[in-house]
Design goal:
Layout (H helix, E strand, L loop, with lengths): L1 E5 L4 E7 L18 E6 L3 H10 L6 E5 L8 H13 L7 E6 L1 H13 L5 E6 L2 H7 L4 E6 L2 E8 L4 E5 L8 H18 L1 H9 L3 H21 L14 H10 L6 H18 L5 H13 L9 H4 L13 E9 L2 E8 H8 L1
Parallel strand pairs: 2-9, 3-4, 3-5, 5-6, 6-9
Antiparallel strand pairs: 1-2, 7-8, 10-11
Helix pairs in contact: 2-3, 4-5, 4-7, 5-6, 5-7, 5-9, 6-7, 8-9, 9-10
The protein binds nicotinamide-adenine-dinucleotide and zinc ion (ZN).
The site of zinc ion (ZN) has 4 residues, from helix 9.
Amino acid sequence: MQITVKAASHEYPVVTGKNLLGRLPEFFDCPTGCKVAVITDDNVAPLYLEKVLSGLPDNACSKTVPHGEASKNWALAGELLEWLADEKMSRSDVVVALGGGVVGDLAGFVASVYMRGIDYVQVPTTLLAAIDSSVGGKTAVDLPAGKNMAGRIYAPRAVVFDTDTLSTLPKTEWKCGLGEAVKYGVLAGGEIFDILEKGVAEENLERLIFSCVDYKRAVVERDENEKGDRRLLNLGHTVGHAIETESALGFPHGVCVAMGIYVIARACVTHGILPAADYKRITAVLQKYGFPECPYSVRSVLPRLAHDKKLTEGTLKTVLVRGIGDCFIKEMTLDELENFVL
Ligand SMILES: NC(=O)c1ccc[n+]([C@@H]2O[C@H](COP(=O)([O-])OP(=O)(O)OC[C@H]3O[C@@H](n4cnc5c(N)ncnc54)[C@H](O)[C@@H]3O)[C@@H](O)[C@H]2O)c1
Ligand SMILES: [Zn+2]
């Protein structure tokens, strides 16, 4: 399956299918002599690096970073830049990001600044990266002041998702991906929500991924730089982020997003914005995939957002739900949000 994303700088394909890892050069421009530098992490490398390298020109090189969010840091980005220079990577060479969202964000960021930007290809290996982070061109590293504080919007040359990689994905990571899939289901309704209601299974997984990517494609084509509509993709994330901070990363991101959707949906039904029937279907889907409700009082976690980088001039752009497939952005102060969700 293939989707073409029209970024402001260029169009790129998002290819999804089986057995693609060893065929990467089919999907991007790599003329004779072009050198490919693969960046991956230490969980993914033993599983898939050899396969990827087997399909690349002989001069390809690779670098493995430790897995986990802590690798999205400035110092490691610097080391990777020095490594690209040591490998004599030129402007016409290509970086491949092989892994989940951490590797994708980090390698994408490095590619975006090396020699003022060289091409990179996203090769996602988690459900979350396949349906969310690999598409749309957001790249970043974290700063002590906050997550994703240094980054660029820099579109990849291609996204190649080999669905075979999901066979080794740990359960928790599946759940994180499903949390984001529920986000897409509530935003888009239609086929995504239907699949989630029926139950995600082998036979509909590719369709689910395709529809999520296609929804994201449409959003980023309308608003690549997140001045408006792209903020819809933050559904569940404002409250979710506060829960994430409160739990000191005890709850994984996708689970916090799901909890955030619970909180927002309940507030919307309470205020008469969301019909009860839709609320029931949303909570039924969240329960179906075993997402817990937020264990904290929302009043206690929301002040965590006081230093959120998304809090501009005292207001937050919160995504509210009018119905399944009908969400909108409302600007609220932190106080207003606290009153709204209680
Ligand atoms: N750029 C964007 O638009 C965007 C959107 C959403 C999230 N993100 C970022 O994505 C990151 C989270 O991504 P993630 O959830 O993919 O986490 P991740 O990259 O940390 O991967 C999760 C874990 O699974 C392991 N793993 C990856 N693929 C595997 C496989 N096929 N088999 C076995 N293990 C595998 C990884 O080594 C890691 O330990 C966060 O940093 C977040 O900020 C970015
Ligand atoms: Zn998210």
